[in-house]
Structures are given as C-alpha cells and as structure tokens.
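hey m, so remember when u said the tokens were messed up on ur end? i reran from scratch. heres the input so u can diff it against urs
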Amino acid sequence: MAKTSASIPQGTRDFSADVVRKRNFIFNTIRSVFEIYGFSPLETPAMENLETLMGKYGEEGDKLIFKILNNGLDNIAKHPQIKADFEKVLEGKNTKGITERALRYDLTIPFARYVAMNYGQLTLPFKRYQIQPVWRADRPQKGRYREFYQCDADVVGSKSLLNEVELVNIYATVFEKLGIQVEIRINSRKILAALAEVCGGVDKLTDITIAIDKLDKIGIEKVKEELAQRGLDETQITTIEKYLAISGSNEEKIAAIGGLLKDNETGKTGINEIGYILNYAPIITHNSSLTTDFTLARGLNYYTGIIFEIKAKGVQMGSIGGGGRYDDLTGLFGVPNVPGVGISFGVDRIYDVMEELKLFPETVQVGTQVLFFNLGEAESKKAFGLMQQLRAKNIRCELYHETTKFDKQFKYAEKKQISYAIILGSKELEEGTCVIKNLITGDQKTVAQGELLAEVF
C-alpha cells in the first residue's frame, strides 16, 4: 500500500480535547438560551438534493455550494453520457448524470424544506433551533472556513415583529453570557427595495444588494464601479452613495433615510418596522448595543424584511451572527405564504473572538479530576471499585492503565492537569485507607476508604 502524507483538506480543522471543551461551552450556552426562549431542537441531513439548494442563495452563494458526485461514475458502461455530462459541468451547468446532491450551505433552506414537508403536522408558530455543520466552497482565511458550525433559531407561521424583538434579545443574552461585547446591527430589505425603486425599479434590487454587501471588503469606490458594471447610471449611483453615507444616531439615521426615500411606501414600512424594534423594549444586557445600519444588505435573495448582523467589538473579525425575515421561503417548496424569521450564530468565529480576548473561563478546561495510581493487581482492583463509586457521583476519574513507577504516573497527571491523585498501596489495602494528594497545592492526607467521597469533594 502506497504511503501518503497525513493532511486534511484546506479550510477544515481537527479539534483537540481543549478546543472541543471550549466549543461545547459555546454550544451549551447558545442551546440553553434557545431553550429558555421556547425553541425546540431539529436536525437535518448533511446533504440535500441539489435542486433544494440551487437558486436559493443568489448568484454568489450558488458558486459556493459543494456538489457531490454520483456514485458509480467509474463504470462508463452504466453511464454512457458521462463525457457529455462532464462537459456540461465544465461549462458551469448542472446535470443529474454527474451530481444530484450537495452538502448543505446553511441551515435555513433545509429548515424551509423540512417545514414544507411536515407543514400539516406542525404547531404554529413553529420555533426550532438547529446546531450542525455546514459547508461552503469559499477561499479559506482568518475566520472563514469551508466546514463550520452554525447555530440557528427560527420562527415560522407568524408575522409579528415580537419575534424580531425576541431574536434581538436572544443575541444580547447569549453574548452577555459569553462575555463578548457586540454591536447588533439591523436594517430592512424593504428599505433596500425602496432604494432600488428610487433608482429605477425593484428589478435592480439584487444588483444593488450584491454590490452593497461588499462595502466592508472593497470600499465605496469599488462598490460604485461594480454598480456601474451592473448597468446603473451616474444619477442612480449617486443616490446609492448618499444612502451609504447616512450616519449618526439611530434617530438621525431614520430621519435621513426618510428624506432620501421621500414618499416611497415600501420604504415607509421598512422604517416603521425598524422603529418598532428600536422602541419596543430596551436590551437588558450591558454587552450589546442595537444600531441601525443601512449599509447592511445580507446578500441572500430570500430575505424580505428586517435583517440582522452581529459584530464583535475590540477585534478584527467578520460578522459572528446574522439573519432576517423571509416571508415566503417555503413557497420555494410548494407551500406558499408561510412567514418566517431567523438568526444564526457563527460558532467558529465566536470561538476565535473568545480566544483572542481570553474570555473562556478556566473551568472549561476541566477534564479528569482524579487519577487513581496503579500499584499492583490487588491494589488496582480495589482502586477500580472506589473509582466506580466516585464516577457514580459524577466525579471524573481514571485508573492508570498499568503498574509502573510513581514518577511516570505523576507526570501523566501533570500533563493532563488532573487535580487529585489517590494512592492505594499494600499498606493502605491492608488498613482500609488511601492517600489523597492535591496535585495543585502538594498537600496530602490519609483517609478511610469509606470516607473518600466526602474528603475529595
């Protein structure tokens, strides 16, 4: 068998025990808040039918979908059209002869597909959360991976803006618990649609939002160039530039956008919805601010109303969360007029932020708490029984795997950052005692084996 170098695909990662524990701290924090707000868990397959995903994320998103080759393509006799099908793929087309499935790009479209398939059995409004990996054929860089986890919470079957208010507060609560200071940015696709109408027609919405969504990455001049390439004239580009230049407090921004969009009814609706969220109830945490950001576009075609994006303060990092309202997403699957709104947490970026700012609590790293030394067959059998008693009380224990020198067992405990060693030799076996050594302070004492649990914790 040929030898190969050990490696993993670019944009993916292995996670050591320390990293997994930190990630689980994030997952469990988010999950606990979702549950407090009345959301129920859901899981969907890693892959979906290609037709389920394609055309749902806009021109840019479709390019980032990982497609899965059909099995059996090595048998040309069973696939006489394989050459012609591959030629279509090389032309950028899709063909069922080559691929019928793809890895999920996000959790929202699979959720919409699930709702459409099970609509008659759901209790509405249906509130679900989902914590699973997604895949994107993106260029890997800091904070951007090809495989990463999303944590989503969505509500379908309700048009009430109370859902948006609650989702804003879910964001605020989670980041308060994680210790991350964030800016919760909101805008409305209705305001963006109104901007498109002012600039000549709603058919220009996609061109405008795709360009605006790149503002942070390429700057205003490049955005203007892209708008020109997409067919907008100088007057329209000037209007968009004025739109992007709006600044000040939330109140000042809303006043300015009202003047720019004038009497556009779609724009008025969007402005009123933002005002509702800003004024309904204050965020009750100290780590979050709620900001109107009209440069926010969320370049996904399915959003129809309020949109969200979360930025961490004090670090150079892309968004660590986002979402919005999508009032007819299930219509893509034959179940029309089901309103919905949802948010997503970018766990991998949240992890990077917490690492950079050193926000993980020390208790996250706790693994094995007690190591029983192995000092012989009879001694280890007795130690195993005591260890099982501690495990029954949820104390994390290990028995060293073989009889060996004290020094080797102590070094093992040190490397694993184990707090206590329990030593049971022939003398202790005879006397019914054991030695407890605190490996942090160096203190030790001899106790009766029956009193072990009370003495350790």
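this time it looks ok to me. The chain has a mean pLDDT of 88. if urs says something different then somethings off w ur setup not the seq
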